[in-house]
Amino acid sequence: MTNIVVVGGGAGGLELATKLGRTLGRKRRANITLVDRKASHLWKPLLHEVATGSLDEGVDALSYRAHAKNHHFDFQMGSLKAIDREQKRIELDELKDEHGALLMPAREIDYDILVLAIGSKSNDFNTPGVRDNCIFLDSPEQAHRFRTEMNNEFLKLHAKNGHGTVDIAIVGAGATGVELSAELHNAVKELRTYGFGDLDSSKLNVNLIEAGERILPALPPRISSAAHSELTKLGVTVRTTTMVTQADETGLTTKDGEHIPAQIMVWAAGIKAPDFMKDIAGLETNRINQLVVKDTLQTTRDDDIFVIGDLAQCTQADGSFVPPRAQAAHQMASRAFGNIVAKLSSRELKAYQYSDHGSLVSLSRFSTVGSLMGNLTKGSMMVEGRIARVVYISLYRMHQVALHGVIKTSLMMLVGRINRVLRPNLKLH
């Protein structure tokens, strides 16, 4: 029986493993194995809400092991260490707990088809002091760290009867930085209702720092302008054309020599694939460690290895690269699924074409702005307010439908509404 191994349980990897399990795994046409170093999955675009406490990851996180059981695939917890292309097997590193005790020994897993969907991590561009002093909002653990530090700073301020400010600096004004800036002001509003009556927006000093000429540089200028305006109304200090050259315990230093004080610093200025992916197993990689793929999503040097999501450098027809977005990972998972099934049936594989359905940025409960693209609008249509908010939430619902189906997703939405009544609006622990 064919062994298909998917490494990485992010949005694309988990959706692909689920589809393969429902079809090939259920009919016993192939053994499907998902590998991830964590025990549960959380949709990455939600991390800024986990960081501020607006979202309880204990409710929204999905257990890989339980999901695998329900969708006819196997789950192996572990980290990829090496790929042996000749023997067609991967090596997983041993897994230890925080005390150094061995949880899982080093293992090898054989494959006939391998899919790499490890995703990306924050890129500090080797800026001095960043790794030691900044939080990278690229994992649930980092989001937890931010929430703990944020709550501690608010407690300190409350103990001083509200004298002083909580200074937070966010480097990088892409979607993560912009959404976190807005969500922080929502957190302050919510905290007031939980015994922090001396807190208001004036006690929160958020600096959003962008090296480029405008925030949200990947989006159209009119959306960038609308988001900039909304953030300014909230009280966020937006600094464009400002390059950070150093970080220390007291704050950030810019290229112009200005010091921006901050108790909490977040680095969200770029991404790269994990360092251990560089030239792994002799496969072609680029300068940020992404694996270069053909239009079929197969690696350039091995047709039995597919790559999807942020880990893939995939060139579009116009010569540009597919952007690292959740919608791209979703589309790649669908195309990789079709191509794997075609490969097993000795049929021709189809080229992946990225379809940009637009971009939406949530400014917490204050506003949502973005653009929708497609045949319906015959180009790009700017949307904001309630309509944009509904569409933004629907992106997450699409991910849930891909994993659970329509009926179960509908039930989860109902539970979510009930939890709004039963649970506090902000996770305070």
TrEMBL record:
It comes from the Bacteria. One of its GO terms (molecular function) is NAD(P)H dehydrogenase (quinone) activity. Residues 3-333 form the FAD/NAD(P)-binding domain. Keywords: FAD, Flavoprotein, Oxidoreductase. Its cofactor is FAD. GO terms for biological process: aerobic electron transport chain. Belongs to the NADH dehydrogenase family. This is NAD(P)/FAD-dependent oxidoreductase. It comes from Vibrio qingdaonensis.
